[in-house]
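Reviewer 2 asked us to include a model.

Predict the structure of this chain.
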Amino acid sequence: MAYSCRSTFQKGGTMHTVNKRQLELLRERYPQGTTVCLDAMVGERQMESGMKGKVSFVDDMGQIHVKWENGSGLALIPGVDQFHKASEPAKKKHREEPSR
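Predicted model (structure tokens):
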């Protein structure tokens, strides 16, 4: 049985696709225990900019599961949510991000 190397999911009307290499890169960049800082998560009012959390794992669709300091377990979606490693400065975004 052959397995696809591509994961696809749809959130907020936007299709997101992660290929095998992108998934490997995400898992290398955000290993378990990495501290991330949220810049923006559209549609999630309880998730304030500046909130920090620790990465639990990156799933097969490329979503980064985080244990947030407010107790939430919401996953980050690269390309939709804005975030950065706590050890790096936040990047300025000049384009409008798609809604969740």
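Residues 1-10, 94-98 have pLDDT under 50 and may be disordered. Helices lie at 20-29. We have added this to the supplementary material.
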